Amino acid sequence: MKKKNIVNLNSIVSFLRNIRKLHRVLGLSVALLVLVSAVTGILLSFKKQADWIQPKTQSGTSDQTHQFISIDSIYTIGIEQVNLPNKPIEIDRIDIRPNKGIAKVLYKDANWELQLDLKTGTVLSQKARYSNFIESIHDGSFISEGFKIGSMSYLGLGLIILTISGLSLWYGPKVIRNKKQTTNTGE
């Protein structure tokens, strides 16, 4: 009976050594992704409070939708009024906030936002907007869509494996101690 317990104990110790190696290598490789994700996540949590990340949303002169200018007018104003030095002017999207009476014009390949009054077409704000860039770093899409999918999958699976291996490394020594005590008492 003692020999069977010793063999079983050796296999547990060997398993834990392999798990420890896996945990260490995986932990080091996942740590960079976790660090980048954590830092950018903290920045994004403050995007409404930090004007340098995302400009504060202005208010227009009316929230009556029948008084709003057309999308075509917003687009034209967005192209004509933007002040982007050395950047091609291409609109990515127009975010309309009817309850605030404003439209936000966001540009492709430029961290820039233009806010317009939906009634008058007046430019209310024209500032840098880094929240989209920070989000692209956060999820890895700033490199490519394929990198985003690969890195986020690796991060998720890595964290699951690290959790399981960490629990094994915590629980394994308890099993070994119990087996040694059982073997030493002769049970």
Search tags:
187 residues; single chain; four-stranded antiparallel beta sheet; 4 helices
Q: Which overall shape is indicated by the principal axes computed on the Cα atoms?
A: elongated
Series of secondary-structure elements, N-terminal to C-terminal: HHEEEEHH
Oligomeric state of shown chains: single chain
Largest sheet features: 4 strands, antiparallel
How far the N terminus sits from the C terminus, by CA atoms, comes to 9 Å
Count the DSSP helices. 4
> Which strand order do you get reading across the main beta sheet?
1-2-3-4
Characterize the structure shown.
Helix content is 56%, strand content 13%. With 187 residues, the chain is an alpha+beta fold. It has a 4-stranded antiparallel sheet with strand order 1-2-3-4, covered by helices on one side. Strand 3 (112-117) and strand 4 (123-128) form a beta hairpin. The model has no long low-confidence stretch (mean pLDDT 89).
Short structural description:
The chain has 187 residues and is an alpha+beta fold. Helices cover 56% and strands 13% of the residues.
